[in-house]
Amino acid sequence: MTYFWSKEKNIIVKREIIIMLKSFASKVLAASLFASLIFTGCSKNSKEEERIQAIEKSQEELYSLLKNDKLEAVSRYAIVNQITNNLTALNDKQGVILFLTDWVENHPDDIYNAYWLLLTAYAYLSDGAEPVAEYYFDRILSSYQDLLVKGNSIHFSCLQNLIQISKTPRSRIRYFNELINRFPTNVSITELYLRLALEYEKESEWNEALKAYSMFLAQPDSSTIQIAGEPNAFKKARQLVGFNNSPKDWTFESLDALENAVKRAINRYDWRSLDKYRAKVNFFSMSWKQDEMDPNAQEEFSMRNFMRGNRVRYSKDLDSDSTSSEAYLRTWGWSQYVSVWYLYFRKVNFPQDPDIHGNWEWAGIYIGEKL
Predict the structure, then answer these.
(1) Mean pLDDT, rounded, for 265-288
(2) 264-289: string of b/e by CB count within 10 Å (b at 16+)?
């Protein structure tokens, strides 16, 4: 045979033979892969069918056992729980819901009904039906005593979920208060007081909001805690509580009135008026890099110490970075070390008092040129 090389003719092996061999090899490989896939698929399908059949057989046996009226509570709990687990394993959420709600309705004396309704709520929650889940979580709180399952409080689990899915501030206020009063060691009290205050604000319950802010500030970690979505929690709480406890007699009805009064006092070197115009709480004096809540930025001082012997001046107009709620007035001549000061004015945010809310205050001083 001369399939590859022929000495007489010295030619390359016939291409058609090679092509045929390649084609044959491809077909064999394809057939092998196809057979393997079929076998694997059949194997997987077979195992899945066996799994489902085993669960269904288990369900039949469990339902049969459950018909025994003489079962002890613990045994009955184990059976109901296993039936629920089997339905969950089959991804039968509606089956879980129907079985458990029917069980609770027909067995009102079952001491584990709170737990069965908790599982019902979870089934609705996993199915995206949050309003229905909320109904069941709230029903457990309102109608069933707390129950420990595997060391976990049913009521605590309900409250945790309700805070996440509830849509109304009024409801969240109730849930936050319950968590604080009933489970103080299970939660971050500091964060909950802050979030409670925010919910009271949404409901325009300013007195309750201030009480919650005060409780937040009273916690030892209030100045250091990191709260998601509330990066300035401590600053805001301190300003509101401090402002509420002050006479608030330094505010001006408009930015123009405040600006003109300060400029007039500078022109006259009237340090007494400047001291009067400064905010009496939360007033800061700091560099642009410092934080307003830095203790070193809150030191008390009199403008007299910086006006005597100095020629103080100010810009004609407010700085270009000024907004509808904050304004900066560039001044200079205060000190031979750092001549430039930016006087910082801000609109008062204090809806608790309509006569004060929206006024303007001189809230601080930024020392040095803007960065």
Answers:
(1) 94
(2) ebbeeebbebbeebbbbbbbbbbeee
